[in-house]
């Protein structure tokens, strides 16, 4: 076990970086990063070393593991979700200081990349050298870098798979990033649950279905990630989508074509939280579901409360409605994985939202804190 733990920590040291450092910059947001580092480590000096030392406590830390993936290469409307991990994490530190999570840090993100399958071998080798400072295929700590992916989605899936294999009882709460980031997170989660003999469902809050087969020829992106995790579910109906309201096709098309389950925003508003949650509980109980993964796109919330995102939409959920749904489902099923996606702090394309950044971050922070608490509970 000791050898396995040593190997895991060495891998994490290479694949990840300190919290807030997932966006590679020199001076941009320097003060914000330093404030976060001070909150995390009590210092702004030797952050890399302090973070590496903190990883040695992984086995004894909280069962809720926080991971940032500062990638918006899989988006495509308004960019800026790559700043989500820094800002949401800072919001948790400032406004929800009792959130009981262990911070793994951030995925190392080359901002031009998405998934390794889109790269040729020469690009992979060049990026490998850039990310891992390799010499003759070895990283500075002696690991064989040729085993390492270089794109954020590929790195994320490797990290999540390693964590679940080493610590089946722990769950990852991830902060994105555009919603393509949920693809590797959910895929690794569902595959791990199958190995553990658990039946899992995915609860997906979003204004959009994310059920395209591809977008402009790219199969893994913010609009298609759900399509590509269906094969890992016991039954496609165990993808339960909440808050949908922006779609070129009616609800019946998505449910009949993919076999998934949807509760659109207007249904939730009309029928109420109790009716909707009871329908979900009855459905999941009939399928003998053990555990839940909750993927939360902030645009599931009405643009009045969540305008700092790439695709804000009117007619969405009130924050309290989302919180109530998560809380009620968490009383009946174990939430063992979750994410918060599409928070773009510098973005606001609406005309009527005031102080969009602060409002969106407060909502994202409150929902994130609840999900973390559910993952961390015994």
UniProtKB/TrEMBL annotation:
<dbReference type="GO" id="GO:0046872">
    <property type="term" value="F:metal ion binding"/>
</dbReference>
<keyword id="KW-0464">Manganese</keyword>
<keyword id="KW-0378">Hydrolase</keyword>
<dbReference type="GO" id="GO:0008783">
    <property type="term" value="F:agmatinase activity"/>
</dbReference>
<feature type="binding site">
    <location>
        <position position="210"/>
    </location>
    <ligand>
        <name>Mn(2+)</name>
    </ligand>
</feature>
<feature type="binding site">
    <location>
        <position position="299"/>
    </location>
    <ligand>
        <name>Mn(2+)</name>
    </ligand>
</feature>
<comment type="similarity">
    <text>Belongs to the arginase family.</text>
</comment>
<keyword id="KW-0479">Metal-binding</keyword>
<dbReference type="InterPro" id="IPR023696">
    <property type="entry name" value="Ureohydrolase_dom_sf"/>
</dbReference>
<dbReference type="InterPro" id="IPR006035">
    <property type="entry name" value="Ureohydrolase"/>
</dbReference>
<feature type="binding site">
    <location>
        <position position="206"/>
    </location>
    <ligand>
        <name>Mn(2+)</name>
    </ligand>
</feature>
<feature type="binding site">
    <location>
        <position position="208"/>
    </location>
    <ligand>
        <name>Mn(2+)</name>
    </ligand>
</feature>
<feature type="binding site">
    <location>
        <position position="179"/>
    </location>
    <ligand>
        <name>Mn(2+)</name>
    </ligand>
</feature>
<dbReference type="Pfam" id="PF00491">
    <property type="entry name" value="Arginase"/>
</dbReference>
<protein>
    <submittedName>
        <fullName>Agmatinase</fullName>
        <ecNumber>3.5.3.11</ecNumber>
    </submittedName>
</protein>
<feature type="binding site">
    <location>
        <position position="297"/>
    </location>
    <ligand>
        <name>Mn(2+)</name>
    </ligand>
</feature>
<dbReference type="GO" id="GO:0033389">
    <property type="term" value="P:putrescine biosynthetic process from arginine, via agmatine"/>
</dbReference>
């Amino acid at each position: 076990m000791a050898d396995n733990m040593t190997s895991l920590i060495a891998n994490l040291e290479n694949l990840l970086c300190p919290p807030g450092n997932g966006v590679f910059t020199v001076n941009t947001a320097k003060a914000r990063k330093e404030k976060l580092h001070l909150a995390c480590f009590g210092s702004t000096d030797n952050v890399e070393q302090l973070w590496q030392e903190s990883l040695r406590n992984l086995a004894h830390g909280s069962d809720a593991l926080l991971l940032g993936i500062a990638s918006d290469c899989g988006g495509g409307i308004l960019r800026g979700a790559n700043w989500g991990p820094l800002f949401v994490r800072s919001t948790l530190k400032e406004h929800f200081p009792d959130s009981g999570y262990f911070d793994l840090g951030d995925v190392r993100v080359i901002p031009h990349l998405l998934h390794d399958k889109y790269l040729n071998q020469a690009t992979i080798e060049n990026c490998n050298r850039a990310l891992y400072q390799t010499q003759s295929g070895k990283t500075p700590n002696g690991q064989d870098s040729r085993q390492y992916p270089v794109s954020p989605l590929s790195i994320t899936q490797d990290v999540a798979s390693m964590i679940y294999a080493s610590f089946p009882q722990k769950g990852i709460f991830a902060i994105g990033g555009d919603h393509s980031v949920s693809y590797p997170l959910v895929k690794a989660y569902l595959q791990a649950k199958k190995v553990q003999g658990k039946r899992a469902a995915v609860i997906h809050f979003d204004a959009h279905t994310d059920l395209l087969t591809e977008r402009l020829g790219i199969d893994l992106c913010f609009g298609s990630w759900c399509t590509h995790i269906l094969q890992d579910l016991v039954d496609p109906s165990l993808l339960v989508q909440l808050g949908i309201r922006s779609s070129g096709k009616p609800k019946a098309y998505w449910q009949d074509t993919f076999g998934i389950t949807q509760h659109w925003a207007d249904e939730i508003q009309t029928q109420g939280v109790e009716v909707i949650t009871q329908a979900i509980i009855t459905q999941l109980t009939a399928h003998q579901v053990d555990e839940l993964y909750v993927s939360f796109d902030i645009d599931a919330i009405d643009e009045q409360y969540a305008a700092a995102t790439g695709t804000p939409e009117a007619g969405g959920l009130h924050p309290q409605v989302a919180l109530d749904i998560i809380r009620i489902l968490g009383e009946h099923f174990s939430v063992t994985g979750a994410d918060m996606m599409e928070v773009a702090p510098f973005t606001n394309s609406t005309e009527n939202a005031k102080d969009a950044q602060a409002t969106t971050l407060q909502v994202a922070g409150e929902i994130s804190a609840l999900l973390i608490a559910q993952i961390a509970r015994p």
